[in-house]
Amino acid sequence: MLETAPFLFEDFSNKDKIMQRIKDLPITRNTVKSRILKIAENKEELVKLVSLQETTKGTDICKAVVNTLSEANVDFSRIVSVTTDGADQT
């Protein structure tokens, strides 16, 4: 990054100050590692608890999830995946 800084900031009047700030950044292996771990953390948010009235088959779970997300106005195109603990699919 430092090698390209003079070219990236050549139009800036405070180019030297910017380059010094870049030099002063604490980029150690531990810093990079901690940032990667922070980015990689899983986030869980509870939408709603729903009791399944009849069975815990995959179709029942699917209906409950679809209904709950629809009620919460969740955009289904933004759902990446839904996992269960191995419910029967039939």
Short key terms for the protein model shown above:
4 helices; mainly alpha; elongated; about 90 residues; about 0% strand
Could you walk me through the main structural features you see in this protein, from its secondary elements to its overall organization?
There is one protein chain. The chain is mainly alpha-helical. It has helices at residues 5-8, 15-24, 29-40, 58-71. The chain is 44% helix and 0% strand. The termini are far apart. The model has no long low-confidence stretch (mean pLDDT 83). It comes from Macrosiphum euphorbiae. This is DUF4371 domain-containing protein.
Give the averaged pLDDT, no decimals: 83
Annotation field: number of helices = 4
Distance between the termini: 55 Å
Q: Shape, please?
A: elongated
User: What are the secondary-structure elements, in order, as H or E?
Assistant: HHHH
In terms of structural class, how would the helical and strand content be classed?
Answer: mainly alpha
Contiguous uncertain segments of 5+ residues: none
- Quick one: how many beta strands? 0
Percent range for β-strand residues: under 5%
Question: Main β-sheet: number of strands, strand sense, barrel status?
Answer: none
Radius of gyration: 25 Å
User: What percent of the residues sit in helical stretches (DSSP H or I)?
Assistant: 40-55%
